[in-house]
Amino acid sequence: MENQPSFKSGFVTIIGRPNVGKSTLMNRIIGQKIAITSNKPQTTRNRIQTVYTEKDRGQIVFLDTPGIHKAKNKLGEYMVTVAEHTLQDVDVILWLVEPSNFIGAGERHIAEILKKAAVPVILVINKIDTLAKKEELLRFIDTYRRIHDFEEIIPASALRGENVGDIIDMIYRYLPYGPMFYEEDTVTDQPQRQIVAEIVREKALHALQEEVPHGIAVTVDLMKKRREKNLTDIEATIICERDSHKGIIIGKGGAMLKKIGTNARFEIEKMLEEKVNLRLWVKVKKNWRDSDTMLKNFGYKEE
Fold first, then answer.
1. Residue closest to 251 by CA, chosen among 266, 236, 265, 261
2. How far apart are CA 275 and CA 217, in angstroms?
3. Under 8 Å between Cβ of 63 and 49
4. Would you give per-residue pLDDT tens digits along the chain (303 residues)?
5. Rounded distance between C-alpha atoms, residue 299 and residue 303, angstroms
6. pTM of the shown model
7. How many CB atoms lie under 10 A from the CB of residue 207?
8. Can you give the three-state secondary structure of 53-116, one letter per residue?
9. Can you say whether the dihedral through the CA atoms of 141, 142, 143, 149 is positive or negative?
10. What b/e sequence results for 176-194 when a residue is b if at least 16 CB atoms lie within 10 Å of its CB, and e otherwise?
């Protein structure tokens, strides 16, 4: 009798409304920063592919998607389209929600979309570390159970790593047997330049707080390693929509831009494992989020 295959592999998408912790969960599972995180919604703009491999068990390819929300501009429409299309390309869907007794219009919209999905759906109730009383969780589970027939429901805290191992176990339960899609040491298919741009954008979002909305993009204009030194030169441009935003991003005497650059350089040096000479510029491109041409130029392209 032939041995049964033991290696499982497949594609998993993480969906949910903006700011429920999708990128935090993926970064926790992968063990390093790939997707940027922010306390502001709609941070992730592209589908990010990361790879989790256990040598004797299997390989999970994660597709982290933009949050599903009501689009207000072409960038928003692009983000929602990416999220919804991803559901057609995977073996398992992870739906992240926050602990709540109230099912809002956004969650109901996602539940409607999931009715069309022909693959297992695992519900992850994230942020359980925020609950005052753990017994509330049973009510929340019961509330969500009524809107979809989930294969599994798992309470978790992506931020603290609580029950993340259970999420991985459940994904493996529903993945098909199959070969590796990527080499064992692969963690992402994102080009380094794109990760660098995302790190700069994350640090800008953190530093700017509520002063500048999500009307910023980052392009990496130069990324070149110096032969004679363990050093990489990087030049990047922060794109904003208004002249007033440009002034805020630069700050008094260039203080804000310097803060963004210092924080980004620290993160980039950790990733590249070498010194980085980072120079940042700021340019105004009015209404870029509603321009098809500029969206494509800044990397928001439908594949």
1. 261
2. 24
3. yes
4. 344 468 999 989 888 877 788 878 988 888 766 555 544 444 444 555 788 899 889 999 887 665 554 555 565 565 556 656 667 778 999 999 988 888 888 788 788 878 878 889 999 999 999 888 878 888 899 989 989 999 999 999 999 999 999 999 999 999 999 988 888 877 776 677 778 888 888 888 888 866 565 677 888 888 888 877 788 898 998 888 888 888 888 989 999 999 999 999 988 888 777 888 999 999 888 877 776 666 666 565 544
5. 11
6. 0.62
7. 19
8. EECCCEEEEEEECCCCCCCCCHHHHHHHHHHHHHHHHCCEEEEEECCCCCCCHHHHHHHHHHCC
9. positive
10. eeeeebbeeebebebeebb
Rounded Cα distance, 302 and 287, in Å: 20
Which residue's structure tokens are 């159970």?
145
